[in-house]
Write a structure and sequence with these properties.
By secondary structure, the chain is an all-alpha fold. Helix content is 81%, strand content 0%. Keywords: Membrane, Transmembrane, Transmembrane helix.
């Protein structure tokens, strides 16, 4: 099992779980909590990658982790905007 397959998917799963939790508990305040989930997963990425103590492919693994998190949270945000369209009003006001 490569370092890539051991270290990247757990970050994606945490981002997915965080996105689901935000969708369930934050309601129309989801735009406040999605960046918090993103920040937490970026910190988790660095913790996992630096704990591996492998230099080879470090940047590629970090890019894969953070890129996947961005895609997951962007899709989560789109779904939540469709569910709570009134939440966009506070961005304009």
């Amino acid at each position: 099992m490569s370092a890539y397959s051991r270290s990247v998917p757990p970050v994606w799963l945490v981002a997915l779980a965080g996105g689901v939790a935000v969708g369930m508990f934050a309601g129309q305040q989801f735009l406040t909590w999605i960046p918090v989930v993103a920040a937490g997963t970026v910190l988790l990425t660095f913790v996992i990658q630096l704990s591996l103590q492998r230099k080879e492919g470090l940047v590629n693994r970090i890019i894969a982790s953070v890129g996947g998190v961005l895609v997951i949270l962007a899709l989560t945000t789109v779904v939540l905007i469709l569910l709570h369209p009134a939440s966009l009003d506070r961005l304009v006001a």
